Structure formats: structure tokens, C-alpha cells
Amino acid sequence: MSHEDMPVFTLKHIPSITERRTLSGGKFILQMRGQTTKRSIMSSLRKLTVLVGVFFFIGFVPAPTIARTEQAKSGLVVADSELASRAGMNILQRGGNAVDAAIATALALSVVDQASSGLGGGGFMVIYRAKDKKSFALDFRETAPAAARRELYMKDSRAVPGLSLTGALAVGVPGEVAGLIEAHKKFGTLPLVVLAAPAIQLASDGFPVDGALGVAIKRQFTNMKRFPDLGRIFTPNGEVPKQGARIRQTELAETLKAIVRQGAGVFYRGWVGAAIVETVKKAGGVMTLDDLKNYRAVWREPLIGWYRGRTVITMPPPSSGGVALLEMLNVLEGYKLTEFKHNSTDYLHLLSETMKHAFADRAAHLGDPDFVHVPIRKLTAKQYAAWIRNRIAPDKTRPVSFYGYYNYDAEKGGTTHFSVIDRFGNAVSCTQSVNTRFGSKLLSVPTGIVLNNEMDDFAIHPETGNTYGLIGNQANSLEPKKRPLSSMSPTIILRGGRPELVVGAAGGPRIINATLQTIVNRLDFNMPVKQAVGSARIHHQWIPERLRVETGIESEVKKALEQRGHAIREQDALGVVQAITWDGSTMNGVADPRKAERARTD
Ligand code: DON
Predict the structure, then answer these.
(1) Ligand 1 pocket: which of 116, 415, 460, 483 to mutate (most atoms <8 Å of CB)?
(2) pLDDT of 225-276, one tens digit each?
(3) What share of the chain is helix, strand, coil (3-state, %, to 5)?
């Protein structure tokens, strides 16, 4: 059925909608255009909900240009895709709350950037509810299939790195749909059909390829040929689509409609799940329908810390990001950072030493808390930070064995982050992923879904590390049903109960350090959000012994850092940050200009 011959409805015919309330208790007003077709609505309301949603969004017209900075008074969504930001903004303008907007944004991203996240992936969402000042952390990270074993990733007793990255064994049990439905159940105020409408429209009508997706397809061109199901969608004429060319995903549109009509069940117990399992099985994987049936998104206690009088709300394990961020902020709090020149040698040396300690602890202690004890309190204690400060020499860096908690007490990319604040003061910080670009490269044909390669985030290859060179030990070993350790660090910073900064990033382990530097740029150096995100960054992850610096760092500084013993590697972009600041009257948000460039490794 084309748009022209679809009936137009008024939402007053769906009684539950107008009864609903926003998080702050205010009633929202819905307006629709056109006439009512009562007969059709009465006869099959469930099917029609999808059409209603699509019509609800008939005014959803993407802007032709990419505005990287946004200002707003009434609420703001900043995603790394213009189309996805607009989907979320539209929901805010129609009276939805921050979680409604986040769900619409996430669903739109699952259509316009399957290279970075989508229904075949997973993520984390940190939520702040203004009316009772409560915060929540939703874990919809992928899990290992029950039959997954380390031996599957080895040949002749040697690890084969490609197996956890590409193809069927790379796929973890997807958590995205369970997560979004769970967030909607607990906090949603608009019906799912309305939130999914922009995504459905973008999938069925097609959307124009933007610079970032163009780069992702180009980089994965060989895999588009090797995995023809993926290529059929993303290289429609056998070539990299030009910027502005349209990509249609009709199967994905049907999958989204089925989820709207039937809920998460169709994904975890119905035909969508069966099709995904079939795709994985045919390609030699071990995921079963039982793995999907047993999947649950989990509400976790958010990790809460304090930095310079602010409350930092961030993601607990199985993310390593929150713990590492708090550990580093605790260390930095002991310095008056503004006494350093921003991005000077002394400043970057201090940052880099702090990062090395935090990443040494990440490798040693962090993993899925349902499987291992993670010493969160010890690692995020202010006393531990004081001890680290004593070990940081201002003039030299140290060998690998010097870093990490055990000295203290004898004891590429396929990710996207978006930030939301609504006019009630609720906030959402959400990072979601398929791991590296287009995940495992497996596309489940009947559903249109690209499947993740999150299994590579386990410490399967202890000697070489994973694709990001991250090493780990028992804490992050592969075990059936376990969640692989993540670096995704969605964070909300409160000042006097008001979200002052909503921030997070994509970029593998760089996520943690990019988020850290954005926080101190804003809170210590008082930079406007555009500069806080745009300033040149560095990254050290303890092993390998490399200090990565963006090209914007002055060459004098680089030379001086080398003299202190740092092995410098230049890189164009270290992480992709989307952040919003709010001073109580004006909100400013920025999407990182690095996205379309070389921000992600593969
Ligand atoms: O969860 C993690 O830490 C990784 N799967 C994130 C990968 C990533 O950020 C890729 N790039 N943009």
C-alpha cells in the first residue's frame, strides 16, 4: 500500500494514548491531520497501529544539511546521525519524554546506521528521572551463546583472531530489542508505534546515505563482496553508494512493524528470532533459539561518583567505562587542572599516566558482574586515587608492570552514542553497538538485521589482545551466557539535581578516555560544549605501550612527551562524542565532527 492510498486517522481513536502521562506528570497533547476512518480502526486496531504511527510522522522530513551543533530551550537530542537526531527531536516536540525520544532515536539509528548499531546489537542506557531525582542503568549488552567455548576460536591450539570478529562465531545474542522494549515498559509515555514510525518510514521509503555511512561501506567494500547478503543492501549496484543515494530496507521495515505489533516476543521467540538463528547456523555458528528465549535486559544499580561537587551517574559492569571514568576523575580531582595549559606536555603526560593506571585495572579486574566479583568500591575509592597520584612522576612514564591495582594492595568502529535532555529535566545517555563496522558482516536476509561481532570483546586471545589490542584475564574470559566486558560509558553529570552534562562516545577503548577528556574540558576548563568535544584528544590504554595523540596536539608538545618516555602514535580521531550541556535555561549540544572521518578502527 502506498502512502497516497493509506487512510488517515486521528489519535483520539486510540484511547490509551491520550490517557498517558509524561514522566513529570504533565499531559501531552497529540495533534493529527486528516479525516477519521472509524471502520478500519475498529476492525483491526493492532495492524493499523503501525500505519497510524507512520502517518503520525508524515511531517518527518529530513533536513538536507548536517548541522553539527544544536541549541534548544525545550529539549535536545544529539545523535551522530542527522536523521536519527530528528526522529528523537520530533518525539520531544510531540510531548514525549527523554526515554521516548531515546527509543525513537535508537530505532532510527538501527535503520540509518547498521554499521554502528541496530537490532542485531546491544548497548547501555543511563537514565535520570528529574521528578524524584532517581537514576537507572539498563544493560542490554549481548551475551555469549550457551554453546560458546574458547576452543571454537582456536585452530591447532592457536587462537584465530578473525573468528571472533567476522562470521557466525562472532555473533553474541542481541540485546537491543529487549532493552528498548524494557525502557519503554518502565518509562515510555508515547505508544511504541509512534516511536517506531520514523524508523519504519526510513526503512521502507529509504534514506539518503550520509558521509559516515559512506565511509563505513567503503572501508568494508571487500566484505560487501564476501558477504553478498550484506552487499545487496549496502552496495545496491555493486558499488559504494554516492552521498545522498537512497538505501531501502524493506525486510527491516517489516521486522520493525512486527516488533511494534507483537512486542519483543517476535524477536526472541517468534519468526524474527528463528530467521536470525537460521542465518547464524547456516554460517557455522552455535547460537540457538533457546539463547534468544533466555536473553534478558537487566536493570543494574548505576555507578555513582562525585567530581568537583557534581554527581556523576555512569554505567556499572559489564561496562568497564564507568569504573575507569570514576577512577580517573578521582585521580584528576587532586590536581588544579586549570594550572596546566590545556593540551600542554605536562597536562597530557598527567592524563596519559592516569589512563595507564585505569586501563591496567580494566585488564586485571573487570568483567561481567554476574560471573565474577568486580572490586568496584576499591577501584573507585578516593584513597586509591590518592595512592595513584603519588605514583605519577611529572617527568617520566614507566614500564607496564608499574601500573594497576595489584601494585597498590598486593592485591574499530561499530558503535554510536546519543544524548537526550527533555524539557522536564529528564536525561538519557545511551551507547549502543554492533562492535566493529557492520559487526560480524552477517545479515539475516528475511529480517534485514546486521548481526554483531561482540564476542571479540571477550579476552579470547590473551597474548595478542582483541581487535582494539585490549587484553584481559579470567574476569573477562569467555563463558557460556556471560556478557563480554565493554568500554561503553554513557554518563550523566548532575549539578544540584539538574543534568549539567550528558555525554558518552563511540570508539572502542577510546570511548572511556574521550568521555573523560570531554568532562574535564567542560567542568575544569569551562569550555563551551563544541570546544569540549572538538579539542584534540589523547588515548593511552596501558597496553600496548603507546600514547595515541590526535593531529591537533602541538608538535612541540609531542616532542616533549617523547622525551618523557612516551611512545607517540598520531591518529586522526580518537573517539566520537555526542554531548549536551544545560545551564538551567539553554541547552547546547554537539555531534562530534570526527564521525565521518577516521574515527573508527576495524
Ligand atoms: O563494547 C565495547 O567496548 C565495544 N564493542 C565498542 C566498539 C566501538 O566503540 C567501535 N567503534 N566505534
Answers:
(1) 415
(2) 999 999 999 999 999 999 999 999 999 999 999 999 999 999 999 999 999 9
(3) 40, 20, 40
